[in-house]
Known about the structure:
The structure holds three protein chains of three kinds. By secondary structure, chain A is mainly α. Chain A has one domain. Chain A has helices at residues 2-16, 18-39, 43-64, 68-76, 78-83, 89-118, 123-150, 157-184, 190-219. Chain A is elongated and about 55 Å long. Chain A starts with a helix and ends with a helix. The mean pLDDT of chain A is 93. By secondary structure, chain B is mainly α. Chain B has one domain. In chain B, helix 1 (11-43) runs antiparallel to helix 6. The longest helix of chain B has 33 residues, at 11-43. The mean pLDDT of chain B is 85. Chain C has two domains: 1-75 and 149-204, Rossmann fold (3-Layer(aba) Sandwich); 82-148. Chain C is 32% helix and 27% strand. Chain C is an alpha/beta fold. In chain C, helix 4 (91-101) crosses helix 5 (108-117). Chain C has helices spanning 40-47, 65-68, 70-73, 91-101, 108-117, 133-141, 143-146, 163-178; strands at residues 2-11, 14-24, 28-33, 55-60, 63-64, 76-79, 151-155, 182-186, 197-202. Chains in contact: A-B, A-C, B-C. The A-C interface holds A 2, 5-6, 8-9, 12-13, 16-17, 72, 75-78, 80-88, 92, 219-220 and C 48-52, 70-71, 73-74, 76, 78, 80-89, 93, 97-98, 100-103, 105, 140.
Amino acid sequence: MIIMWIIKRDLLLAIRRQSDVLTTLFFFVIVVSLFPLSVGPEMNMLRAMAPGVVWVAALLASMLSLNRMFSNDYMDGTLEQMLLSPQSLSLLVLGKAFAHWLVTGIPLVIMAPILGIQYDLPAEALVVLTLTLLLGTPVLSLIGAIGAALTLGLRGGSVLISLLVLPLYIPVLIFGAGAVEANMAGIGFDAHLSLLGAFLLASLALAPWATASSLRVSLE
Amino acid sequence: MTINWFKYSSPASFYSLAGKMIPIFAFAAVISLVAGLYVGFFVAPTDFQQGEAYRIIFIHVPAAWMSMFLYVVMAFWAGIGLAFNTRLSSMFATAIAPTGAMFTFIALWTGSLWGKPMWGTWWVWDARLTSELILLFLYIGFMSLQAAIDDPRRADKAGAIIALVGVVNIPIIYFSVQWWNTLHQGASVSINQAPSMASTMLLGMLIMVFASWMYSIAIILKRVRVIIIERESHTAWVAELQKKDSIR
Amino acid sequence: MLQGINLACTRGDRELFKDVNFSLGTGGLMQVRGPNGSGKTSLLRMLCGLSSPAAGEILWCGEAIRVLNEDYFAAMTYIGHLSGTKDDLTVIENLRISSALSGYEISEDQASEALENLGLGGRERLLVRVLSQGQRRRVGLARLLTCKTSLWILDEPLVALDAMAVKFIQGLLERHLQQDGMVVMTTHQEIDIAAASIVQLQLA
Lengths: 220, 248, 204
């Protein structure tokens, strides 16, 4: 199965280059830890801010690693080979986005509850926060792949990615952070989670296809 | 009478056609702008709730409409260009973007001007203003991407993809922001719903919308002409054109 | 059969070539020649479907390759300038993964055998980053030994190779051509390859 090969390859590369994974994770931790230093250690305020802060930091961290998604493959010619594969390019892209999520998204999901404790989030809110990140971070990788593919090989590509991709991240941010806030306010958060799930399904269906066309445009 | 539309899909013949059309649209834009502003600022009655400040909507509402509409038109032409490899439609998309961004900016600016007397602050995180801000980001993303790419063919196609992705996302973003807004604050007085509009108000508004249309068409045609000259500078007809101009 | 009809290529405002026509039948070798910057690599990228010609059409067995897409890719192997190898993977991992991504999975033994043939025996477990330029090139070319495609498009395949390896690749290409394969290649080196028919394409 071709998708397994690409996932296996990208994971193998990530294991051999652990520093890449760790920088993303440390970036996430540092950004979240900076907020109390800038607004003061008042616990009630921090608790209210926590969902938003963690989500924005997750957004930025996941974006930080985006331009590595295709650029290494582009430089050494393996991307060319993928484009000429008799298998569907969308499927390969899906595999790459999945690998990207395993390598950058999952560590964020695992780290988030620990950071939530710093902000004195109640236990239930921690669970909801983790759940929303689990549903939301794959969407970030999938949508981010489009930006990464479009900016391949361009000057200032990494800044450009953020311009292209951050506005598209907004719905995920709103409902991700919103679910945790709703839970803390004692309102149900099922609707938020189902919407995040819907975003995930929609981006699973459309983003690999858009990314594949972008890659063909960028390599022409 | 049948018009050969395909004749005008070639940049060379479109260039001369556009040249003839621009003055007509520009003239219509100026006339309707003057008329619309006159009706809006002198004829339309003072609003009993909002006083004179409401008159900003004669600029704000058309600008907001145009900003959203132009994004869809831009994505449409970009998509046509991507699907059928028609150069002219891609050039249209590129030409529309700055005008769309300008209207978005005007809508934001007039929105905040209106907000000061109404809400007491220059900026409120009202759902519509926020969506408009995000729309501005989308325009900026499209333009920066195209500006970063040297090869025009790649710029056209890459721009088309991001424009289409944007169009799919706009309803989702709009709906999300709407939800977010109602969750965080009570219903605020919305700028686009002036209660029971007097007929002169409506008339002024319609004339201003017409003026925005005419202006957009004129400026976009103008910009398309510039893009055509830039891209086709190596062809014989442009060389001839420039020779004629330099003699004149 | 691979056919090019009135192909043209532009880079920015500059026209690299136009009205390029050729036809390559089974067992045929096409050598693309021309000075630097004449568009050899651009032509090869067009022929393999990475980029589309500014004008003209490329046909594979009578059908346009832009319509065939994946069906065409299944019959074609392209090895470009870049070696297409990952520095952080071992030699054998590289070969097995690149083969799998090109649609044919090979066993460890098949991979070892191919590498042995290319003089990389005993280096299978080394990371590609420690190899020399010529050795990397061989890792890239090893795919030719494991693939089952009929059309090979090779951009400067002999660059950085030593005399032994050049001889081996020459033999490999001749064998491929004898078995009714087709080869399109560019090279600056003078090389004699026996083929049923040879097309010389000169780009100005």
